[in-house]
Structures are given as C-alpha cells and as structure tokens.
Design a protein that fits this description.
Trna Endonuclease, Chain: A, domain 1; 3 helices; alpha+beta; about 130 residues; UPF0102 protein GCM10011502_07170
C-alpha cells in the first residue's frame, strides 16, 4: 500500500517538474527575445541570469556608462494587470539586493557606477520596454 502511495507522489512530482521545466523554458525563450530586442536598441550584454543568494537578475546590460539591470516578465495577456504589474514592490526589493550583490562582487557601488532598473514586459507577441522602471 505504501508503494502505491509513493508511486502517486512520484507521478505528481514528475508532473510538477514537467510544468516547471516548461515554464522555465518559456521564460528562457522570452529572456532571449528581450535580449535581442535590447541589443537592437543599442545596449550591450554583460551577463545573462546573474544568480546569487539574494536573487536573480535576468539580464545585465550596458547603455553607455550606465549598467542596466533588466527584469523580463511574460504574460499571455494583460488580464490581472499584465506583465508589468507582476513586478511587485517585494520583487523590486529583491532585484535591488541582487544588483547590489553584483556591484559588490566587482568592487563597485551605485555612487561609482551609474545604474538603472529596466523592465521588459512581454504580453502575447508584444514587447514593452520600460527604461528606469523602478
């Protein structure tokens, strides 16, 4: 009987893992689209998917002398506020902390290095770039 219960749990975990994998794959796809869009706008890629214990930054780019920390959000449509509305104040704080970590890891701080936070909101097939979003 315990085996049947365990098998059921394994199926559930496998299904959850598959959904997470599909979601991550979709996220990667939109991050690449956002990257290509921003490259077309003249920004230069510095780092993809910067990860630290404080969070993750999808893209770190450079616009002239300014370091640009980019959050990419995708929503199928704009119901429930859309992609831009999904970047809550808590998420913004997490991104700021990860950005400070990135700067510190390179011996920099925001007084030495001009920085900004941009948002690329993908809704359906539309891309909306919001420079200096927060």
């Amino acid at each position: 009987m315990a085996t049947g219960s365990n098998t059921s749990n394994n199926r559930k975990t496998s299904t959850q893992s598959s959904k997470l994998s599909t979601s991550r794959s979709r996220g990667d796809q939109f991050e690449r689209r956002a990257e290509q869009f921003l490259l077309g706008q003249g920004l230069e890629l510095q780092v993809r998917n910067y990860l630290c214990k404080l969070g993750e930054i999808d893209l770190i780019m450079r616009a002239g002398h300014t370091l640009v920390f980019v959050e990419v959000r995708y929503r199928k449509n704009s119901h429930f506020g859309g992609a831009a509305a999904s970047v809550t104040p808590a998420k913004q704080q997490k991104l700021r902390r990860a950005a400070y970590s990135y700067l510190q890891s390179r011996g920099l701080n925001e007084s030495q290095q001009p920085c900004r936070f941009d948002l690329v909101a993908c809704e359906g097939s539309d891309i909306h770039w919001i420079p200096n979003a927060f």
